[in-house]
Amino acid sequence: MSVDLVVMPNPEEAAAIAATLLADAVRAGESIVVAGGSTPRRAYELAARLEPDWSGAELWFGDERCVPSDDPHSNARLVRESLLAHLAKPPRAVHAVPTELDPEAAAEAYDAALQGVSLGLVLLGLGSDGHTASLFPHAPSLQATGRLAVAAEPGLEPFVPRVTLTVQALASGRRVVFLAVGADKAEAALRAFGEPPSPATPASLVRSTAGKTTAILDEAAAALLRDSGEREEPTR
Ligand code: 6PG
Fold first, then answer.
1. What is the pLDDT of residues 70-84, one digit of tens each?
2. What is the position in ligand 1's atom list of the atom closest to the CA of 39?
3. What are the phi and psi torsion angles at 16 (to 5°)?
4. Residues 115-136: pLDDT tens digits?
5. What's the gap in Å between 126 CA and the centre of ligand 1?
6. Which of 42, 56, 91, 185 is the most buried (most CB within 10 A)?
7. End-to-end Cα spacing for the chain
8. Residue of the CA atom closest to atom 6 of ligand 1
9. pLDDT of 39-57, one tens digit each?
10. Buried/exposed code over 155-164 (b: 16+ C-beta within 10 A; e: otherwise)
11. Whole-Å CA distances, 33 to 58, 163, 217
12. Neighbouring-strand partners of residue 85
């Protein structure tokens, strides 16, 4: 399951590549899956500058922490603050995970909402343990079949219940793009993008079944991959 590696000199340039891909997906009018955590914040800020009109696109969340939407741990809050607040025209729809429900009910509602949706760009992060979205190593969620979203227990902080898209849902995207920077992601990046797929590294299981899979890394995150010779030039 091949991955195109795009290695940039620093986090800012890695974010800029991700922002360009986000803007392209917006202009194509796609249903876009956005990542949580902290890494994509800069990419969202840059994407809002590149393309302030998101009215042709819809947003979905690759995962969400089951906390109120104003909680510092909320991915909806991250996207609201770093992206939506800076747009001239908001997305046609922002599909937040209904975290006011209990995790199982929220997952079932999100699963139902995703049925029949053709996902375009799927932006993902990478945890230092190799997780992506809220798909954690060896978790039952990795085996979920027939579901596009499930409830998940956290494997890393913040230790709150989660809702996550499944491997099947994430891989259905037209293009899967991972964004990971920093030396603390180097070992996970090697396992995710330089070694055979394994449930020990959920990110290694997510590859687009409809198109390309790209990993945008900075030099630090790519340090253990550099000698694999898989370097690619930045592509749109
Ligand atoms: C989440 C994210 C998660 C994230 C990784 C990396 O909700 O936490 O979706 O998969 O991408 O944990 O997080 P950082 O970008 O903060 O390192």
1. 999 999 999 999 999
2. 15
3. -65, -35
4. 999 999 999 999 999 999 999 9
5. 6
6. 185
7. 20
8. 127
9. 999 999 999 999 999 999 9
10. beeeebbbbb
11. 9, 14, 19
12. none
Which ligand 1 atom minimizes the distance to the CA of 65?
Answer: 7
Going by CA atoms, what residue is nearest to atom 11 of ligand 1? Answer: 125
For residue 99, count CB atoms less than 10 angstroms from its CB and return exposed for 0-12, middle for 13-18, buried for 19 or more: buried
Give the ligand 1 atom nearest the CA of 184: 17
Residue identifier of the C-alpha nearest atom 13 of ligand 1:
37
- From the CA of 185, how far away is ligand 1's center (Å)? 11
Give yes or no for a contact between 179 and 20, defined as CB atoms under 8 angstroms apart: no
The Cα 129–Cα 215 span in angstroms is 16
Q: From atom 5 of ligand 1, which residue's Cα is the shortest distance away?
A: 127
For residue 2, the tally of other CB atoms under 10 A from its CB is 9
With vertex at residue 104, the alpha carbon angle to CA 103 and CA 107, rounded to the nearest 5 degrees, is 85
Q: b/e per residue, 6-26, with b = 16+ CB within 10 A?
A: bbbeebebbbbbbbbbbbbbb
DSSP tag of 85? G
Q: With a cut of 60, say whether residue 231 has pLDDT above it.
A: no
Rounded mean pLDDT of the chain? 95
pLDDT score of 228:
52
In three-state secondary structure terms, 219 is coil
Residue 156 binned pLDDT confidence (cut-offs 50, 70, 90): confident
Quickly state the pLDDT bin for 235 (edges 50, 70, 90): low
**What number does the ligand 1 atom closest to the CA of 64 have?**
7
